[in-house]
């Protein structure tokens, strides 16, 4: 389904993040223009994306005037240069672009986001490295989770996990899990053999199923403990690669009391990270070589290993080696998804893509702007399984339809589920007698559907 294709979106920068954005925004039916300095990038985008592709300087007043950036509903600058992105957005804003989004990676710039928003007209700043680090940080809280997202300002969570062999969830129906096992979580979607569906009460979970669960943040630990799933707090974490992602992640882990060992084989970068994060143990070494120097006791006391170098192949090899050593939680950064084929089917390694994280944040913000003229608003958007599954967070006010009506009296469209309702700092797992009220936040799960308004989830 395509919608609101009258909206004009401009993207400056045809790199991995720009390409990921362009493919999805084009698929969603927006009127899209892509600008990049490199001719080969422009030619490649022209052949793969339904968009106007223009070779030029995305920060140039002349270029932006020529392509009509003054008519942009959303102007996005995601080149590798922070300065170019800021200047592009500022120029587009002065020309008349309604909303501007800049990718900013430098730590000093990222900390000045209020200045850029208030004084230079930026609508939102995306720091892909920080966003990726925070996603890894959330992953580390649950050893079995393969993805963790937060919504409603941290009051509720979305957790992705696989039903492994010997899992207490395998062979049980959702009714048994929710009642007999006494957990206060909702399984919103299941992926089985590559196909996603909204489960029913009598759906029996099978080994290998991928589950998407929602609930109050504090309920996950309680519920996982009840059913015997591990929730051991992290005490010792090893990180391979001295990237910006590594720095942000190290900072977050140290704040929560974990011991961090960071391994970077380039001496200048190792020294730089050591100066920025003095509480971490920074080793100038190769991660695989460092593993060989570790004692069995050191490895046994390592709760998690995260591979964050710029080399996909190295990350996967290091991650597989860490998993073979018995480390419970292993995460690998990866850019090219085709390389995931090297992972054994039974592997528990989590993978994360900086490009996908950044694109998801921008797509969520873009979707929220669709409702600028309406009353309900998309607060956030989470795309999973290459966009087949979406979790959308709506803010609800008194003008929304279907309020104050018991959910049992409303009919949802096929492949849509109301996952959670957040009200007055409480997270409610929706039951038949619950109602949507003004001021609520609602989390909606959709499969192979795109919705722009809350009213779109209900059947006539």
Describe, in plain words, how this protein is organized in 3D.
With 460 residues, this protein is an alpha/beta fold. It has four domains: 8-126, Rossmann fold; 137-226, Alpha-Beta Plaits (2-Layer Sandwich), CATH 3.30.70; 233-327, NAD(P)-binding Rossmann-like Domain (Rossmann fold), CATH 3.40.50; 367-457, Regulator of K+ conductance, C-terminal domain (Alpha-Beta Plaits). Helices cover 32% and strands 25% of the residues. The protein has 15 helices and 22 strands. It has helices at residues 16-27, 39-48, 61-66, 82-95, 107-110, 113-120, 128-139, 174-180, 217-226, 244-255, 267-276, 287-293, 296-300, 312-324, 354-369, and strands at 8-12, 31-36, 52-55, 74-77, 99-103, 124-126, 145-151, 156-162, 186-192, 195-197, 210-216, 236-240, 259-263, 281-283, 304-307, 329-333, 350-352, 377-384, 389-395, 416-423, 426-428, 441-447. The strands form four sheets. It has a six-stranded parallel β-sheet, with helices on both faces. The longest helix is centred in the C-terminal third of the chain and has 16 residues, at 354-369. The protein is globular. The two termini are 18 Å apart. Residues 372-376 have low confidence and may be disordered.
């Amino acid at each position: 389904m395509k919608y609101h294709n009258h909206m004009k979106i401009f993207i400056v920068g045809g790199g991995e993040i720009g390409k990921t954005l362009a493919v999805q925004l084009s698929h969603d039916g927006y009127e899209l223009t892509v600008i990049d300095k490199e001719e080969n990038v422009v030619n490649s985008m022209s052949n793969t994306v339904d968009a106007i592709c223009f070779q030029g300087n995305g920060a140039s007043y002349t270029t932006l005037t020529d392509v009509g950036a003054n008519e942009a509903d959303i102007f996005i600058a995601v080149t590798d240069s922070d300065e170019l992105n800021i200047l592009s957005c500022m120029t587009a804003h002065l020309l008349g672009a309604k909303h501007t989004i800049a990718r900013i990676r430098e730590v000093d710039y990222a900390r000045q986001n209020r200045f850029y928003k208030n004084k230079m007209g930026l609508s939102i700043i995306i720091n892909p490295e920080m966003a990726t680090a925070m996603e890894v940080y959330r992953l580390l809280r649950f050893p079995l989770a393969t993805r963790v997202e937060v919504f409603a300002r941290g009051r509720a969570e979305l957790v992705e996990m696989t039903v492994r062999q010997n899992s207490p969830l395998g062979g049980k129906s959702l009714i048994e899990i929710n009642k007999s096992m006494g957990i206060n979580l909702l399984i919103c979607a299941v992926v089985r053999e590559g196909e996603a569906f909204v489960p029913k009460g009598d759906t029996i979970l099978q080994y290998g199923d991928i589950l998407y669960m929602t609930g109050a943040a504090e309920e996950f630990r309680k519920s996982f403990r009840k059913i015997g799933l591990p929730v051991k707090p992290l005490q010792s974490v090893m990180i391979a690669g001295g990237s910006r992602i590594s720095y942000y992640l190290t900072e977050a882990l140290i704040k929560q009391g974990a011991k961090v060992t960071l391994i970077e084989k380039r001496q200048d970068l190792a020294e730089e990270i050591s100066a920025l994060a003095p509480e971490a143990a920074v080793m100038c070494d190769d991660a695989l070589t460092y593993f060989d120097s570790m004692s069995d006791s050191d490895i046994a006391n390592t709760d998690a290993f995260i591979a964050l170098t710029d080399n996909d192949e190295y990350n996967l090899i290091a991650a597989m080696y860490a998993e073979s050593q018995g480390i419970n939680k292993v995460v690998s950064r990866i850019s090219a998804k085709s390389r995931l084929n090297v992972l054994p089917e039974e592997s528990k390694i989590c993978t994360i893509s900086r490009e996908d994280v950044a694109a998801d944040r921008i797509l969520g913000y873009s979707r929220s702007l669709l409702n600028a003229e309406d009353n309900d608003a998309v607060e956030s958007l989470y795309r999973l399984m290459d966009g087949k599954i979406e979790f959308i967070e709506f803010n609800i006010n008194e003008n929304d339809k279907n309020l104050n009506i018991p959910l049992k009296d409303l009919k949802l469209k096929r492949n849509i589920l109301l996952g959670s309702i957040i009200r007055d700092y409480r997270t409610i797992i929706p039951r038949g007698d619950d109602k949507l009220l003004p001021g609520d936040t609602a989390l909606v799960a959709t499969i192979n559907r795109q919705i722009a308004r809350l009213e779109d989830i209900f059947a006539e």
